[in-house]
Amino acid sequence: MSARKRLPRSKAVYILPNMLTTASLFLGFMGVVWSMAGDFEATALAILGSAVFDALDGRVARMTNSTSEFGVQFDSLADLVAFGVSPAVLVYTWQLSQFGRLGLMASFLLVACGALRLARFNVQAKVADKRFFTGLPIPASACTLATLVLFVPFVPQQLIDAALAPALLALVYLVSFLMVSTVRFASFKELGFLRAHSFGTMVVAILLFVLIATKPRALGFVIFLSYIISGLGYTLFVLSRRGAKLSRHSREDSSTVCSEENGQ
């Protein structure tokens, strides 16, 4: 009896992360379709689903030791559709079309800055600090806009009518700028602190799960907005003070060296 022909294990495992990337790409494409049809909540959920698959494909590739240059490039192209084009079409068809050319260019800026962010990430991936992202990750940018769609029903109607469209326009420009900025955002890839405080981490994780499960639509936007604020706060206050201390110590050391040389 002839044995059934099977793919070698290495090749079979290699397909799995790319299938997850394809699922992310498909949801991004469906998000564009649903935006043009006016189903904005479905688009928001599609973007969030893409983020889940995007997180899984990299982890699966590393766990199965099936990472490849092809997978890296395919993942970047899928991300540009799922987290660049899809949210740009979403915000334009949802609110920004009323601003005319200004809204159109804001939506395009989201795609352009997302592409630049992905290109910079691919170039700097081997030398970058694994603890932080330089610039807002494009999935976080897309998820911030997507969760805003789900958050809006909790906002008073008078406030929606008066401020939603201008606030969204400002938010689009903000996340576009942050994607190409040098602001540092936590990557959560280095888990040494979490492992050292495993019990406390577990308690915090349970509390967050309970809160999110209670009001997932309301808290999603709050979480992503808090992530953006945390990156800005860390860069503006922690890194700036650290840089000021280093420059001050450098000046003190140089003045000490100069005085010693003059003493000689």
From TrEMBL:
NCBIfam families: pssA. PROSITE patterns: CDP_ALCOHOL_P_TRANSF. It catalyses: a CDP-1,2-diacyl-sn-glycerol + L-serine = a 1,2-diacyl-sn-glycero-3-phospho-L-serine + CMP + H(+). It is found in: Endomembrane system. This is CDP-diacylglycerol--serine O-phosphatidyltransferase. Belongs to the CDP-alcohol phosphatidyltransferase class-I family. GO terms for biological process: phospholipid biosynthetic process. It comes from Paucidesulfovibrio gracilis DSM 16080. Pfam families: CDP-OH_P_transf. Its main location: membrane. Its EC number is 2.7.8.8. It is a multi-pass membrane protein. InterPro entries: CDP-alcohol_PTase-I, CDP-diaglyc--ser_O-PTrfase, CDP-OH_P_trans, CDP-OH_PTrfase_TM_dom, CDP_ALCOHOL_P_TRANSF_CS. GO terms for cellular component: endomembrane system; membrane. Keywords: Lipid biosynthesis, Lipid metabolism, Membrane, Phospholipid biosynthesis, Phospholipid metabolism, Transferase, Transmembrane, Transmembrane helix. It comes from the Bacteria. One of its GO terms (molecular function) is CDP-diacylglycerol-serine O-phosphatidyltransferase activity. The chain crosses the membrane at residues 12-34, 102-120, 132-156, 162-180, 192-212, 218-239. Gene3D superfamilies: 1.20.120.1760.
